[in-house]
UniProtKB/TrEMBL annotation:
GO terms for biological process: cell adhesion involved in single-species biofilm formation; negative regulation of bacterial-type flagellum-dependent cell motility. This is diguanylate cyclase. GO terms for cellular component: plasma membrane. The keyword Coiled coil applies.
Length: 347
């Protein structure tokens, strides 16, 4: 359309896409479809186009995953580019100041040499006084320039610290799930490998819990995506309340969560899993808009312990198998690779 900027056209396209796929017009959803419409993120484009081709619904959890996978990367890349540009600019400015300081020091040195040479002869008191005035003037000028350089360097140091804080924030945000505040899948993969490496080095144990919200899709379809998001936050809150500082609770994907338990054997992991399962079941879910009690939420949990020859992938696979067994055995239960679970479930 004549007179319409590219940004306006992309904004219009983003809103049209959200309307077509019945997506709530939240800021994150708008940004997601704006980036898709712009075509600047090939991975996002492929994912969305596959969903459209297969007529897959853009549900709340799906959209959260897309935002976590693609928007954070987009923001991180943009911030890194901005920080890199700022640092480059500061380096250029500091180098320019240092170059000027070098020239100033050279001029000061030449001024001192000149005064020293003139003082070598027989000078009248008036001439000596004049030379001293010249020396004082040159020294004061050099002192002013030195203070100016010091101020500039202090300012640059403060800017570098500010940029460092920005990078730290971006680094943390890039490893968090935006909806629940738990570690995201990328962070989970990193932390699990780190936990396994630590266990090998210290000859200790690592246990892994894989958790899944029971009948989440049915609940989501019945009460809507916003209430579904509330359920995800409720479960993530229970996980956060029950893990220690060295452990990691993560949103693995959709309605599935994971907990990495460092230096924890299977027995302790089973007990903790049962505690978490019970805590979730005892929470009352209340619809915020009406205050109505919607009922209870339950989760199924699979627990596995690191084996001697396990890789991260194998450990996840075995914990997942336990999770599926828990769901196929009636849900709202904990299943592990050890018969100890029988006593826990019977309690």
């Amino acid at each position: 359309m004549a007179g319409q900027s590219r940004e306006q056209a992309l904004a219009k396209a983003a809103f049209a896409l959200m309307a077509d796929f019945n997506v709530a017009p939240t800021p994150d959803h708008y940004e997601l479809f704006f980036v898709y419409a712009a075509g600047n993120n090939p991975a996002l484009s492929r994912t969305v186009e596959t969903m459209i081709r297969e007529r897959a619904p853009f549900t709340g959890p799906v959209l959260q995953d897309l935002c976590a996978r693609f928007l954070i990367r987009e923001r991180t890349a943009q911030t890194m580019e901005e920080v890199g540009s700022s640092i480059s600019g500061m380096i250029d400015a500091v180098m320019s100041k240092l170059e000027k300081a070098g020239k100033d020091a050279g001029e000061y040195g030449r001024a001192l040499s000149a005064v020293s040479g003139e003082l070598g002869g027989n000078q009248s008191p008036a001439a000596v006084a004049k030379l001293i005035d010249k020396l004082v003037g040159a020294t004061q000028a050099m002192e002013t320039r030195a203070k100016s350089l010091e101020t500039e360097l202090q300012r640059s140091s403060a800017q570098v610290n500010e940029l460092k804080n920005q990078l730290d924030t971006v680094r943390k945000e890039s490893r968090l799930d935006p909806l629940t505040g738990l570690a995201n899948r990328k962070a989970f993969d990193i932390e699990l490998q780190a936990a396994i490496d630590d266990a090998r080095e210290t000859n200790t144990s690592v246990a892994l819990m894989m958790c899944d919200i029971d009948h989440f899709k049915r609940f989501n379809d019945t009460w809507g995506h916003q209430t579904g998001d509330q359920v995800l936050r409720l479960v993530s809150g229970c996980l956060s309340e029950n893990v220690k500082g060295r452990d990691t609770a993560a949103r693995y994907g959709g309605e599935e969560f994971a907990v990495i338990l460092r230096r924890t054997e299977l027995t302790g992991a089973i007990k903790l899993a049962s505690q978490i399962r019970s805590n979730v079941e005892n929470k009352k879910l209340v619809k915020r808009s009406t205050g109505d009690i919607l009922g209870t939420i339950t989760i199924s949990i699979g627990v596995a312990e690191l084996g001697q020859n396990d890789t991260a992938e194998k450990l996840v696979q075995r914990a997942d198998q336990c999770l599926y067994k828990a769901k196929n055995s009636g849900r709202n239960r904990v299943t592990a690779e050890d018969e100890l679970i029988s006593a826990i479930n019977a309690a």
